[in-house]
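Please, does this match?
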Amino acid sequence: MENGLIIELKGVSKSFAIGGGREFLALKGIDLEIHQGEFTGLVGPSGSGKTTLLNLMGALDNATEGSVRVLGRNVESFSHTEAAHFRKESIGFIFQSFNLLPVYTVFENVEFPLLVAGVAAEERKKTVTQALEWVGLLDKMYSRPTQLSGGESQRVAVARAIVKKPRIILADEPTANLDAENSHNILRTMVKLNQQLGTTFVFSTHDQKVIDYLRRKITLVDGRLFKDEALTPKLAGNDK
């Protein structure tokens, strides 16, 4: 990967069948590069293609045309098993719906990716504890999701995404279900992880609170890359 280039899309289009022999073209000829350590947002109205683009970067879906390279690998050539292994090893996901397992404690929810990866028990305990410390939830490790606030639940989701220390974290509308205070708490945590661990963050969002933290804003309109601009963040990880 030259010059820290970790995500590269060339001529990427994506269509979906909508019945009656018709197709919806969600992405149209996207060319895009993202480098190690970026804090970037895919921004645009509903239906602009930002979540579809995020899914292609995360090997959750395949492009109809063009190439998608992530961490030097052509993800469109992956089999289902290879794509799952790649996601497990290299990418953390944060979704607006939290996706926590209700019968598990906070510790067990964060531990789950390490269990799947076959990490030894002692190392799991150390790594999960560290991740919960990162997001300020050590005192909640034995709580269950039903005992948490929305902000706390999203912090658990962040801890689960970072526990493997992935190179890339993809976040789809991560503040959509949070109030302003919890949104800023989550975003400050993400900035800290980006700065101290070098984790690359790519958001799909239309939330101005998220945009205020970005260092790069990629605007999509009707499935096309409309604007790509460097930003000076209005807010930083240590803002109160």
Q: What stands out?
A: The chain is about 35% helix and 30% strand.
